[in-house]
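Our consortium's second objective concerns turning raw sequence data into structural hypotheses that experimental partners can test. To show how far this objective has progressed, the report includes one record in full. It was chosen at random from the queue rather than selected for favorable results. The single chain below, 457 residues long, was entered without modification.
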Amino acid sequence: MLWRDYLFEVEDFQIPGGVPVLSAVEPQRLIVPTDAPPYALHVAANGRNFVDQSGNPILIRGDSPWALLSRLSLSQIETYWRQRQQQGFNAAIMLFVGSREGSGSWDGSTPDGIRPFQNDYLFFNGDVTRLNPAYLQRTRDAIKSAAQHGITVFLYAADTWSMGRTFRPSSQQACADYGRALAAGVADLPNIVWVLGGDFTLHDSPTSVDRCFDAVRLGIRAAGDRRPISIQFTSPMTYSTLSTFWASRVDWNFLYSYAPPYQGARSAFRSDPPKPVILGETNYEGMNLQPGTPTTTLASLRRQVAWALTSGASGDFWGNDDWQFPPGWEARTWPGYQQVNSVRDVVGALPWWQMHPAGDREVVIDDRPPSTDLGRDVLDDDRVTAATDAEHTVALVYFPASVTVKVVAPFDRSGVRFVWVDPSNGSRRSTPPSANATPPGKNAAGDEDWLLEITRR
């Protein structure tokens, strides 16, 4: 019975009950210390990106330590956040309730045996509306530690992997009451963005699990919590507003793509009303979840981030094969974050929050049609993408390979500056503007991808 419990599909789990009843309270007002680092606190008024507590745009530079809460001690968590801050990260994905599949913990407990809910016993959880105060405190300590290091936690309030396993709500009302209790328990922590789902199938009509996730959302809102919230669906390429049920319920778009993400990012960018697009999950360093495709390389990591950030995304999450923190994870090194951060640094130095994915003939002309094969690997595509601002004073073009494209007016005229940027290390070289653009050979990593920064004086 236990083995079956951990193998079934989440769609098999049925949660009875109708629409939950919740009375709302006044919206909370988060108080952020004046000396605090910037956090992703709100969605910008134009719906295009996140802003911090001062209203300044903040580019999401994410990490994906999913199992951090259920696999690390508090001292290890503190060390982890400090390292990530030093490495240039400002956001991280973290599960609230762990599970064997999602975080390596059979019962969702922390390394010292603290379980999420009261009245738990071996492999089974108690009432999800009765949060274990010790577990809630551990969560608070982990998030507060992240705050000290300038990291916004994208916290999965309820996720697919724990649903029906370590998280077994008895009714839709229980889902809502749980959401309200969780939100109340972390109400004073300013560095939280909410997420639901995770490898969750996008359904044509809502299932009882969809409705439970939504009940959790309603519970969070009933607690007065107005922090941004979204849901993650699974591949091959999805984003949150693709679901008619969820489109009006989310505040930002979680883009999931193991194929080249530029088409998904551009499509999500066109959501009406606008919502920030974040490349939330794609190929991880040391992993490849698409059978029969090439091994993920550093070029793979650069490509997917550069494509997304020049196609409407306002941030991304990098990940590696240590997301479950297996034995020996501390001794392993991952150079990919440096490559990803090189791309992020180039974008971050531009007025990226004012830029949009360029039309087919707005900055450059790439006459080759984009591939529609969602099963292809990022190394099997060489589509050129570009972003620009409304006044066409700046543009950023990503060349995944050595191809030539035509540069269009007004970027092909005198008074324009061309700078090739190596996405593997950020080095720059100026070149005379031209009506045609071709990358300048191999980059420092031995690959052919380059960024072209175009500015008009």
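The partners drew two points from this record. The chain is about 25% helix and 20% strand. The first strand starts at residue 42 and ends at 43. Both points have been shared with the crystallography group to help prioritize constructs.
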